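So, read this over?
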Amino acid sequence: MMPESSPWDDITVPGSDFNVRQIAGDTVVPCFWGRDADGACLFIVELQGDHAAQYRKNAVTVNGIDIDLRLGDKGAQRLVLALERQVDRDLFEGLCRTLASSLVHATDSASSLAVSLAHVRRWKTFLAGRSQHLSAEDVRGLFAEITFLLELSDGRMSSNAAVEAWLGPERSHQDFIFGNTAVEIKSLSGAERSTVRISSEDQLESLNDALFLRIYRLSSLTDATGACSLNEIVTSVHARLSEAGAVEAFDRKLVAYGYAPLPDYDQPRFVVSNVRSYRVGNGFPRLMRSQLPTGIASVAYDIRLETLEPFECDGAVVFEEM
């Protein structure tokens, strides 16, 4: 199903060349939505000067999108992104809208082309992953895991190492493992009942010396100070990553989770209203694979939060192995 507010819907298909509508925004180069004679959806960045050598050196190919540098009017060149059938239109729209936002930081045509090609290269991972739409619960869960990732990188761990420690998207039993510590992350909505869902018999059993359950209560408060959307918290991680390999690893894990930076994830905006940490050990209310009766598998269950109170610990203890 096509999004109702697609920017290409009100652009007529021309008999030749293409029809365009300029995108409002504070960019040093003009950007346009467009349609060509075949009806394809276009995103066009208009550049001044000759950038053919820079384009050839940094060219990127993406399955489902045709990327081309074409001659424009009066010595201008146009970077044209054309959507082919294989890629969903909402993903392409997400790419184009976030690219337009990124171009605000470019200072001239050469840097605008560099930003554009780097942006498309990063999006290649998301487009190849053909991500599914996340449920409200998935959005909260991913937000909580990335919140903990940022907390790791605020401590003595580098941001690149924090990404390496994030194993949740790779179907690890626990979401984070570093040193000899494993941490399982859970999220609750601000109004949610006082239980936490454990989705397997492996989540609260670990070979590591220390295992913690860390629960984030998230309140959806769009205009509150410090409120942050899923897209915004993902962007804040990207801003911290200093190595291309770490950026690629983070993006691969996001794709494995089912995420792509779509405009849908600009809302809701969350505030972490409460964080509680629990040390998982003897007596902790849990089901473990090693203690299940023969023939029982794929267990999921809820734990009442009040039964966890004897196991609560200072949040700082979680980070001691760093």
